[in-house]
Backbone:
């Protein structure tokens, strides 16, 4: 024992020390420094309301504990409550603190504060000591919220990926969701056909801030040094116009999309910005050409000598690209010659727009006029010549039998 200390050696004091030592060990406070401080004040009876301070690393954070003791009616020391505080992972200069009843373990206290510092929920009064049952309820609630937040974050990341924004805002998205901001916006960028597009993605929390929603994004297309075009596109249930499709729409082309009406029912329609109708905020109205409008892209381009329609895979790729609003290169075979063009869908006029290799618009009649009868007769004649040897060989085989 330390010199200069007047320790009491009566049996009750020894029992008091042993019981407190066992209780603290059961709660997870069994460091030598704790035992030494406990022995000093229990056996000496020098302090009426002693306390024990303890610091320990807890993974990526540091934890500080202060154990507060009092005396019961017989004069024995007892653990009244303890305080736990941890450093914030995101803000190292700040700490989260809470008082706990003596039936709460150090591990559960740390577990609660770890979960709590990652979620900005309505926190209990830090100076009102929490009991074991309250801790379990709080931990269950925070774990449930954490699972929901993770699922919400994963859904938003998947939506952004499907909408063509990749992973460029994922880190900022997660940080803003953790901070429980009621709404926030994130910048994104893309470049298509050597043209830059700036986006602002808007996120908003639902009721009680339990979930976040990606509601819309603003797109700005640079058109020259001083000109730019702005348009807002809305997202429903994680679906809507993609980043590339927004660019194509702002370039004046049409996009084919699956949409939802007010009742949540799906429908198919071609979309195109209306240059003649501009809203007060600068947004152009979006024209919709539904299935009943009678535009059939496949019928418009079939029978025009387009080489890409010659097999299933290339035809599927061509149609998919045109429905996304892209300018798509095609090869047209006419009178034994091949020519390269670019086309895009034009649902309003139930046709396609035609461009040369310099992307200059040309008369669509050059493509849309059907092949001449002379060309068709020539193709039939060539096909017959190709089939002739096979037919002759077939006759020889029959004669040989």
Residues:
């Amino acid at each position: 024992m330390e010199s200069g200390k007047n320790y009491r050696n009566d049996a009750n004091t020894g029992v008091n020390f042993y019981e407190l030592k066992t209780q603290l060990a059961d709660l997870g406070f069994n460091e030598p420094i704790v035992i030494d401080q406990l022995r000093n004040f229990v056996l000496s009876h020098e302090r009426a309301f002693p306390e024990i301070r303890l610091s320990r690393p807890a993974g990526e954070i540091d934890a500080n504990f202060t154990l507060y003791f009092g005396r019961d009616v017989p004069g024995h020391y007892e653990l009244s409550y303890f305080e736990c505080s941890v450093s914030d992972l995101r803000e190292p200069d700040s700490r989260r603190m809470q008082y706990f009843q003596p039936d709460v373990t150090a591990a559960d206290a740390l577990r609660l504060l770890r979960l709590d510092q990652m979620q900005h929920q309505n926190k209990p009064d830090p100076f009102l000591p929490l009991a074991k049952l309250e801790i379990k309820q709080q931990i269950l609630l925070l774990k449930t919220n954490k699972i929901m937040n993770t699922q919400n974050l994963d859904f938003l990341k998947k939506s952004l990926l499907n909408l063509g924004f990749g992973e460029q805002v994922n880190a900022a998205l997660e940080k803003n969701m953790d901070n429980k901001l009621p709404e926030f916006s994130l910048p994104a960028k893309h470049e298509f056909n050597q043209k830059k597009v700036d986006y602002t993605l808007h996120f908003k929390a639902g009721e009680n801030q339990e979930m976040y929603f990606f509601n819309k994004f603003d797109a700005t297309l640079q058109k020259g040094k001083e000109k730019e075009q702005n348009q807002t596109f809305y997202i429903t249930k994680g679906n809507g116009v993609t980043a590339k499709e927004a660019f194509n729409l702002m370039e004046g082309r049409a996009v084919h999309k699956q949409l939802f009406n007010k009742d949540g029912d799906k429908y198919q329609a071609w979309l195109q910005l209306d240059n003649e109708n501009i809203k007060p905020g600068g947004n152009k109205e979006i024209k919709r050409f539904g299935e009943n409008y009678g535009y059939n892209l496949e019928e418009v381009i079939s029978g025009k000598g387009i080489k890409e329609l010659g097999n299933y895979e290339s035809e599927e790729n061509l149609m998919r690209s045109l429905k996304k609003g892209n300018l798509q290169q095609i090869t047209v075979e006419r009178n034994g010659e091949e020519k390269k063009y670019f086309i895009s869908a034009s649902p309003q006029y139930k046709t396609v727009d035609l461009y040369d290799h310099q992307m200059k618009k040309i008369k669509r009649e050059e493509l849309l006029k059907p092949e001449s009868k002379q060309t068709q007769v020539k193709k039939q004649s060539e096909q017959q010549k190709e089939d002739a040897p096979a037919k002759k060989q077939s006759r020889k085989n029959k004669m040989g039998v």
User: Anything to note?
Assistant: Residues 11-130 form one domain. The radius of gyration is 37 Å.
